[in-house]
Specification:
Blueprint: E1 3-14, E2 17-28, E3 32-36, H1 43-51, E4 57-65, E5 68-69, H2 75-81, E6 83-86, E7 93-97, H3 98-110, H4 116-129, E8 140-141, H5 147-161, E9 165-169, H6 177-193, E10 197-201, H7 206-209, E11 215-220, E12 223-228, H8 231-239
Helix pairs in contact: 3-5, 5-6
This protein binds adenosine-5'-diphosphate (ADP) and magnesium ion.
Magnesium ion (MG) binds near residues 43, 88 and 169.
Length: about 250
């Protein structure tokens, strides 16, 4: 299977503080990987660095995507190449409706103009799948949305953009059981519709039940300390991270 993402010795810092220390992580095309680790391990930081968030500075190592070195590329160029990051805390944007935001994002990423009618059809189908009331399309992005609705809006983006690599940062946190099911359904739909790869950051097994996890990575204190099959998720949930954390 060909490699989609290859991270070599990635070291990154923010505000002069080194947060990632030589991270190694490879994801094949069409694979589903899980990233776990204690709070503050650097999981969200890794997601942001893969996406090209300028808050973080890569001081060593490289990120290859589809065989190209993207370490120095801007976030919008990475999005055009097919990298998507859902945020742990989605932002609210007054003045832009969810529908406008998604159509704009899709046009940015594909570089193509989409007929309004075709876009609306695509949007409606995705919203129905996620059991979102279609009136949300005309509301300002995330403004007044509940935690669950914000997360659904993120999965909606995933279905509209169909990226090659989707990084989902705790998309399931703060969701009730039904909403987790709906979000899982959206992720499954993305997996069945595309040959996209997933990097799922989560503490929750529920979201993974429907997904076939190929590999699990454990991040602690800014480095990958263990890797394993999908089974490792259950072991970690049962026994905690303690045994993977090396103390000086
Ligand atoms: N922009 C930033 N500036 C300074 N420190 C940061 C920044 N982003 C994250 N950190 C720090 O990096 C560490 C890892 O954070 P984070 O990646 O959010 O962890 P996780 O997602 O695994 O819980 C934390 O100590 C956090 O305070
Ligand atoms: Mg985080």
């Amino acid at each position: 299977m060909s490699e989609l993402l290859k991270i070599n010795g990635l070291t990154a810092s923010a505000e002069e503080k080194e947060l990632l220390h030589g991270v190694e992580l490879t994801i094949g095309e069409g694979e589903t990987h899980v990233l776990m680790g204690p709070n503050g391990a650097g999981k969200s930081t890794l997601g942001s660095v893969i996406m090209g968030n300028p808050e973080y500075k890569v001081t060593d190592g490289s990120i290859l995507f589809d065989g190209n070195d993207i370490t120095a590329l801007s976030a919008d160029k990475r999005a055009k190449l097919g990298i998507f990051l859902s945020f742990q805390n989605p932002i609210e944007i007054p003045g832009i409706t969810l529908s406008e935001f998604l159509r704009n994002a899709l046009e940015q990423v594909t570089g193509k103009h989409l007929k309004l009618w075709d876009f609306k059809k695509k949007l409606k189908a995705a919203m129905e799948l996620l059991e979102m009331d279609t009136s949300y399309a005309d509301r300002d992005l995330n403004v007044g949305f509940s935690g669950g609705e914000k997360k659904k809006a993120e999965i909606l983006q995933l279905l509209i953009l169909e990226p090659k690599l989707a990084i989902l940062d705790e998309t399931d946190s703060g969701l009730d059981v039904d909403a987790v099911k709906t979000v899982s359904k959206g992720i499954e739909e993305y997996r069945s519709r595309t040959n996209g790869s997933l990097l799922v950051i989560t503490h929750n097994t529920k979201i993974l039940e429907a997904l076939n996890v190929d590999k699990t990575h454990i991040l602690a204190a800014g480095t990958v300390v263990a890797e394993g099959s999908g089974e490792l998720v259950n072991e970690v949930i049962e026994n905690g991270f303690e045994k993977y954390i090396v103390r000086e």
